[in-house]
Design goal:
Length: 355
C-alpha cells in the first residue's frame, strides 16, 4: 500500500526495482491499456492467472474506492489460460465501465519511449493524441474501438467471394457514424488545447501549433456532420474493390495524423532537436493538464517516468514550478535522487528497493 499526498511524489530506486510497474498500475485506473499499451495478459506475473489494482481517490467531499483487474479466460477443454479480454472495473464497490472510470479520474503520462514520437509513424502520434482526447471526452475510446471492430468486419466481408451488399451497407453506415464522432472529438480537443497553450506563459517549454490532419478532418471543418457521414459512406462504397485488393481500408480516422510545429521557430517538431522535442511534449502535457481542470473541475494526475533525469537544472526547476502552479499530484521516477536534489521541501520521496 502506497499513501501519496497531493503534490510531487518521487519514486526513487535502481533499475529493475519496480518503479515503472507502480506507475503502470496507476495508469490502469483509466480507460485503455496503460502507459505501456501492453495487453492485460502480459501484465500478469508468471505463475498467476490474474492481477488486481486497488486505489482510494480522495476528493474534496469524499473518498472513493476504485479498482480494476484482469482474469485470464480458462479453456474448459484444455484447462489452460487464454488471452480473452476480461477486465473488470469497480467504482465505490459497484461494477462499472471503463468510460465511467474516466469520468472520475484523469491520468496523463510521459514515458521515455515517447521522446521519438514526432519522428516516428503517424500511429504513435495518433495514439498519444487520442489519450489526450479521451481525458476530455470519456466516450472517445469507445468510438475508436467500435470503428476498428467494424473496419475489421468490413475487411472480412470484402474478402469473401460473394459479399453481401446489404450487410456491407449496414457495416459502412455504422463506421461512418463512429468515424465522424471520432473526428469531431479530435478537432474539438485540438482547438481547446491550442487555446490553452496560448494561455500558458513559459519561456522554458515552448508553445506548439497543433493540427489534426486527414480527409475527414478537412470535410468536417468545412461541412456538417451528417453531410460528412454521407460522404464517407460513399467513399467506402466506391473503394470496396481497391480495399479488397489491398486488404485494408484506405480512408478513415485510422489514417489521420497529429502534427506539431514549434511556434516560435516555425519548425515542424520532427525537425527540432531531441531536447526541443521533449520540451514541446512537456509543454503540451502541462497545457492539457490545465485544460482538464478547466473543463471538468477535476485535477488530473500526472505521471512523468524518468523525465527529470533528462532535463537540465533550469528545465527541472521550470517543470516543478509549473506543476506546483497547476496544483496537481505528479508522480515522477528516477534511478537515483540526483534529479530531485534541492526539492526535498516540495516533494514526497518513496524509495523503491529491489525484491
Amino acid at each position: 500500500m502506497l499513501n501519496a499526498e497531493p503534490g510531487l511524489v518521487a519514486l526513487v530506486g535502481p533499475n529493475g526495482a519496480g518503479k515503472t510497474n507502480i506507475l503502470e498500475a496507476l495508469s490502469l485506473l483509466t480507460p485503455g491499456r496503460g502507459l505501456r499499451g501492453a495487453s492485460y495478459a502480459t501484465m500478469i506475473e508468471t505463475g498467476c492467472d490474474s492481477f488486481t489494482i486497488a486505489a482510494r481517490l480522495q476528493t474534496e467531499e469524499e473518498t472513493i474506492p476504485l479498482g480494476t483487474g484482469y482474469q485470464l479466460a480458462i479453456s474448459r477443454k484444455k484447462g489452460e489460460g487464454s488471452a480473452g479480454e476480461r477486465r473488470k472495473i469497480r467504482i465505490d464497490q459497484e461494477t462499472a465501465s471503463a468510460e465511467e472510470l474516466g469520468q472520475w479520474l484523469n491520468i496523463l503520462w510521459l514515458t521515455p519511449d515517447m521522446d521519438t514520437m514526432f519522428a516516428g509513424g503517424a500511429s504513435r502520434r495518433r495514439r498519444f493524441f487520442d489519450r489526450l482526447v479521451l481525458a476530455l471526452y470519456p466516450s472517445h475510446n469507445g468510438h475508436v474501438q467500435r470503428f476498428e471492430s467494424l473496419m475489421r468486419e468490413r475487411s472480412k466481408i470484402l474478402s469473401e467471394e460473394q459479399s453481401d451488399p446489404l450487410w456491407l451497407n449496414a457495416v459502412e453506415s455504422r463506421m461512418a457514424e463512429h468515424a465522424v464522432a471520432i473526428t469531431a472529438s479530435r478537432l474539438e480537443s485540438c482547438a481547446r488545447l491550442q487555446a490553452c497553450i496560448a494561455q500558458m506563459d513559459s519561456e522554458i517549454f515552448p508553445a506548439s501549433q497543433l493540427t489534426v490532419v486527414g480527409l475527414l478532418e478537412e470535410k468536417l471543418a468545412a461541412g456538417k456532420a451528417i453531410e460528412v457521414e454521407d460522404d464517407y459512406r460513399t467513399i467506402l462504397k466506391d473503394n470496396r474493390v481497391q480495399d479488397r485488393l489491398l486488404r485494408r481500408c484506405q480512408v478513415g480516422p485510422h489514417r489521420s495524423d497529429w502534427r506539431v510545429i514549434h511556434q516560435r521557430k516555425k519548425q515542424a517538431a520532427d525537425l527540432c532537436s531531441t531536447g526541443e522535442q521533449k520540451t514541446l511534449l512537456i509543454g503540451i502535457i502541462l497545457a492539457q493538464t490545465r485544460l482538464i481542470g478547466q473543463m471538468t473541475g477535476r485535477s488530473p494526475i500526472l505521471i512523468l517516468d524518468e523525465v527529470a533525469a533528462h532535463l537540465d537544472f533550469e528545465h527541472r526547476k521550470g517543470l516543478i514550478s509549473q506543476i506546483e502552479a497547476l496544483a496537481v499530484q505528479c508522480w515522477m521516477s528516477g534511478s537515483d535522487a540526483g534529479p530531485f536534489a534541492g526539492l526535498s521541501d516540495v516533494l514526497q520521496r518513496i524509495d523503491i528497493a529491489p525484491h
